[in-house]
Predict the structure of HTH cro/C1-type domain-containing protein.
Amino acid sequence: MEFKDPMGELLSSLEQIVLSRDTIKVAPALQAQPEIVPEPQRLRELTGMKIDEFARVMGVTVSSVKKWETSQSKPSATARKLMQLLHANPRLGQQLLE
């Protein structure tokens, strides 16, 4: 039986949703610079989320977000991918909170 990573599948599905909404505008930007991830604090401010909301959307603790924002630690690859999706569609964060 093949094991499937549920978080990976969720992020893949979210990516398809985000990219299908505005393929012409969003997809080339992500393809041209796939490793570009905005700073966590900047992204959080762009999305209009409080630190606790951002932590909930990212699936981490407030402490983890604070560490990212002060460069004491770096987000995981999964978190960076979700941050790319949030950057491509800032409203996604609010949708995930609902």
In short: The longest helix spans residues 6-21. The chain has seven helices and no strands.
